[in-house]
């Protein structure tokens, strides 16, 4: 006999954690999606779905819709991200052996528009109340259940559930604060699948293929492996990323950590939005230049035919794939300059009103199935670029450049592209990934330098000089 999936969502006093959602990034096994002070943090696991292959998105969609179809949901907040929620990450490639996954946590904390909430999710038959939810959160934040990695900066939950509303959240000093990181003692970096020279040869080979007319754009990625003898702690990495890269979406799912500036798709009701990036400039390149740095970025990025061409390919890729699901769509006529601590990007935001397809509004996973991979992370034409990536990279990207984010039972969700990230492979090792868009005018040495600029957020968060 299968127990019923049940959830309870109650308001949470946001004044108890002025640092916002990043205040809850205190465990290495936390599931998270956060930008500025808002987002979701999940603890524990009550259900999991995994899949590989070309149908991984649709299989996950079917599993999730079946799970929530008969769920008993009590939700007094009713915002995107309340009620049943799952966190997920998906492999970049349909040929990857890496398992794509959806994870349903036991406890979710959410912050949005100055409102905070707490959701408890269960298959058990016990009664769900505000007291049980607060007590469960307190247990997770104070070090239990089994397998906990500790909760630095938290206050243990008391025995009395009645006091848990204060004890179950980090103290006011536990917010995300930029602080000088002690350099990781003895940390080392090693090349991954390809040496720098071999990767530059791959870039040159990609440019040669583009010049034959076989494709317009190719995205090539590379990896490096960091060894940190003092240990790699996901919670520390996530807090640093959330504090330093506030305009990005910081994500953590099963050892995949990062802070992406690129939103693949955000769905709220019938409105879908995306942020497309293509065109990158290292902020260090502005050192010694006359005038304000942003003027330099505008001149070099917006004034570059190569960068504008790469950006236009990415925009057309997304809007073309999104159009069949939309009754109206608009995008910026001109890209804007997105300022991040490490780089500038050419960026465009796209907004669409979703239409019914076969009698219902498409789910975010159905949209991802249509959109991924975009030209921003693969190239165009997609099939040609994908085959060339497999030939030249000598790398299984795993979840790198795949969709990462969350979805709820109402069809809402936020899914970024897993960029500026890494996979924690052991207590002391982490594999970092970075990629570049290759077009006709690309220079291998410049593209290599761009990868190092894109590695910088993760290197900084690990306490490694870059």
Automatic annotation (TrEMBL):
Assigned protein family: Belongs to the isochorismate synthase family.
Entry keywords, A to Z: Isomerase
Pfam families: Chorismate_bind
NCBIfam families for the chain: isochor_syn
Reactions catalysed according to its record: chorismate = isochorismate
Statement: the UniProt record of this protein carries the keyword Repeat: no
PANTHER family for the chain: ISOCHORISMATE SYNTHASE ENTC (PTHR42839)
Organism: Arthrobacter liuii
Protein name stated in the entry: isochorismate synthase
EC number(s) on file: 5.4.4.2
Upper taxonomic lineage: Bacteria, Bacillati, Actinomycetota, Actinomycetes, Micrococcales
Enzyme superclass (EC): isomerase
Domain Chorismate-utilising enzyme C-terminal: 196-454
InterPro entries per record: ADC_synthase, Chorismate_C, IsoChor_synthase
Keyword presence, Isomerase: yes
């Amino acid at each position: 006999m299968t127990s019923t999936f049940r959830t309870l969502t109650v308001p949470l006093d946001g004044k108890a954690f002025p640092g916002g959602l990043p205040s809850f990034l205190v465990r290495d096994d936390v599931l998270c999606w956060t930008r500025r002070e808002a987002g979701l943090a999940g603890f524990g696991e009550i259900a999991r779905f995994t899949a590989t292959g070309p149908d991984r998105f649709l299989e996950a969609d079917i599993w999730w819709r079946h799970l929530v179809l008969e769920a008993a949901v009590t939700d007094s907040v009713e915002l995107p991200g309340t009620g049943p929620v799952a966190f997920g990450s998906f492999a970049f490639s349909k040929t990857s052996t890496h398992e794509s996954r959806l994870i349903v946590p036991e406890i979710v904390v959410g912050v949005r528009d100055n409102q905070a909430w707490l959701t408890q999710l269960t298959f058990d038959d016990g009664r769900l109340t505000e007291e049980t939810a607060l007590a469960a959160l307190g247990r997770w934040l104070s070090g239990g259940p089994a397998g906990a990695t500790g909760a630095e900066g938290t206050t243990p939950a008391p025995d009395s559930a009645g006091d848990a509303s204060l004890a179950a959240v980090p103290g006011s000093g536990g917010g995300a604060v930029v602080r000088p990181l002690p350099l990781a003692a003895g940390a080392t970096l090693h090349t991954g699948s390809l040496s720098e020279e071999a990767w530059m040869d791959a870039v040159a080979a990609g440019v040669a293929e583009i010049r034959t007319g076989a494709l317009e754009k190719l995205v090539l990625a590379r990896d490096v492996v960091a060894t940190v003898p003092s240990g790699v702690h996901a919670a520390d990495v996530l807090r640093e990323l959330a504090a330093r890269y506030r305009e990005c979406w910081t994500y953590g799912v099963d050892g995949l950590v990062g802070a992406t500036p690129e939103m693949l798709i955000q769905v709220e009701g019938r409105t879908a939005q995306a942020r497309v990036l293509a065109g990158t400039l290292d902020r260090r390149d502005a050192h010694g230049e006359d005038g304000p740095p942003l003027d330099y970025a505008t001149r070099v990025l917006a004034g570059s035919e190569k960068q504008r061409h790469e950006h236009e390919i990415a925009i057309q890729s997304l809007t073309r794939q999104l159009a069949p699901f939309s009754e109206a769509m608009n995008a910026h006529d001109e890209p804007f300059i997105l300022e991040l601590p490490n780089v500038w990007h050419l960026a465009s935001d796209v907004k669409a009103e979703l239409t019914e397809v076969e009698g219902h509004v498409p789910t975010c996973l159905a949209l991802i199935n249509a959109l991924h991979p975009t030209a921003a992370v693969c190239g165009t034409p997609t099939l040609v670029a994908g085959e060339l990536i497999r030939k030249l990279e000598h790398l299984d990207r795993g979840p790198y450049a795949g969709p990462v984010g969350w979805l709820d039972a109402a069809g809402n969700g936020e899914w970024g592209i897993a960029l500026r990230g890494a996979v924690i492979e052991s207590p002391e090792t982490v594999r970092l990934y970075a990629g570049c868009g290759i077009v006709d005018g690309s220079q291998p040495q410049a593209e290599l330098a761009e990868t190092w600029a894109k590695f910088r957020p993760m290197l900084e968060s690990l306490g490694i000089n870059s």
